[in-house]
Design a protein that fits this description.
The structure is a single chain. The protein is an alpha/beta fold and 327 residues long. The chain has helices at residues 34-48, 60-68, 73-76, 90-98, 101-104, 138-143, 147-155, 176-192, 201-210, 251-258, 264-274, 286-293, 298-310, 313-325; strands at 21-26, 53-59, 79-83, 108-112, 116-118, 132-136, 165-173, 216-218, 224-225, 238-240. 42% of the residues lie in helices and 15% in strands. The strands form 2 sheets. It has a 7-stranded mixed sheet with strand order 3-2-1-4-7-6-8, with helices on both faces. It has a 3-stranded mixed sheet with strand order 5-10-9. The chain starts with 20 loop residues before the first strand and ends with a helix.
Length: 327
């Protein structure tokens, strides 16, 4: 993969490629963990989907930080798109870019959050008829409702109908209807950003409800949100590590920390091991390692790890023994 020259011209828009393009939206000062997380995720894409073109969509402030610190992302990204955004926080600039991603990257496109590990092929766009697809939000699958996001939607007077989608993984094929979708999404986000703290998912779903296309609901294996379920995690194509720290550490968190002191080749070797792991738990999580040795099913492992963070040692032992005896 070519290295972007530190003082070279960076394209402001990516035109359609022959195959699918995977885009990450990133705003960072390189003193946070987002760039390192994106690095790990992008390496996992290169290992599991070598034919996919990776694009980094950043604002000019973030590009300056990546250049200043000579971040490894500059070496592995196939293309970098820089956009002048209005001034604001990193969260504001990130959502400003994400809600307009179809304006800056065109063709057959997968938009993926940085807190992910891609484990197997996601080059499947030619098999779908729809120009747009996403995965149901995990809390909706588990509890039939997502209190936070539904409350945010109610604040704006929106009433999402049908499936409520997670905005951390979606695909689109450029078309007039998709262009109108992004215009609607960005406008709804602009209307709601001050009321619901820049959250993009309520406006994402409201825009889908108003869209001219019929979206494709994808299997959760394309976006397994691991705080909600580890069921079928071995078969999942993408692990999405949204708020997973409460389980006592995960493999993405460990790799993100390691990325700052490992060479690119060394980090790639660690990511190669990670994409073949049975569960998303970190190597340093001793309880998870013991449970793996005991061949405890992944979903029970997840529930045990969450309870360990909530209960006292005695309560946890009582609770876990009851679960293990009854499994």
């Amino acid at each position: 993969m070519p290295e972007i020259p530190l003082n070279g011209a960076i394209p402001s828009k990516i035109s359609p490629a022959k195959g699918p393009t995977l885009v990450y939206v990133l705003t960072t000062d390189c003193r946070d963990f987002y760039a390192d997380m994106a690095l790990v995720s992008m390496l996992s894409v290169g290992l599991s989907n070598p034919g996919i073109t990776t694009v980094l969509l950043v604002d000019t402030i973030s590009m300056g930080a990546l250049q200043k610190y000579r971040h490894k992302l500059l070496k592995i990204s196939d293309s970098i798109v820089t956009v002048d955004t209005p001034s604001g926080s990193a969260l504001f600039r990130s959502r400003w870019l994400k809600t307009q991603v179809g304006q800056f990257v065109q063709g057959k496109v997968i938009c993926l959050d940085v807190d992910t590990i891609v484990r197997s092929s996601i080059d499947w766009l030619n098999h779908f008829d729809s120009d747009f697809g996403a995965v149901a939000d995990a809390p909706m699958l588990e509890a039939k409702q997502d209190t936070f996001n539904l409350l945010m939607s109610e604040k704006m007077g929106w009433n999402p109908k049908g499936t409520y989608y997670n905005s951390g993984f979606f695909y689109f094929v450029s078309s007039p209807a998709v262009t109108r979708f992004f215009e609607t999404w960005h406008g709804l986000w602009q209307d709601s950003k001050d009321t619901i703290n820049h959250q993009d998912q309520p406006s994402f779903n409201a825009a889908i409800t108003r869209a001219d296309f019929k979206e494709q609901e994808l299997a959760d294996s394309f976006n397994l949100q691991i705080t909600q379920s580890w069921k079928n995690c071995q078969q999942s194509k993408v692990w999405h590590f949204w708020e997973s720290r409460r389980m006592g550490g995960d493999i993405l968190e460990e790799l993100t920390h390691q990325s700052t002191h490992l060479s690119l080749d060394q980090l790639k070797d660690q990511v190669r091991h990670a994409v073949t792991k049975r569960t998303p738990a970190g190597y340093s999580n001793h309880l998870a390692r013991v449970m793996d040795l005991l061949s405890i099913e992944p979903e029970l492992q997840r529930r045990l790890l969450i309870q360990k963070s909530r209960l006292s040692r005695t309560q946890f032992l009582q609770w876990s023994l009851g679960k293990l005896v009854g499994r």
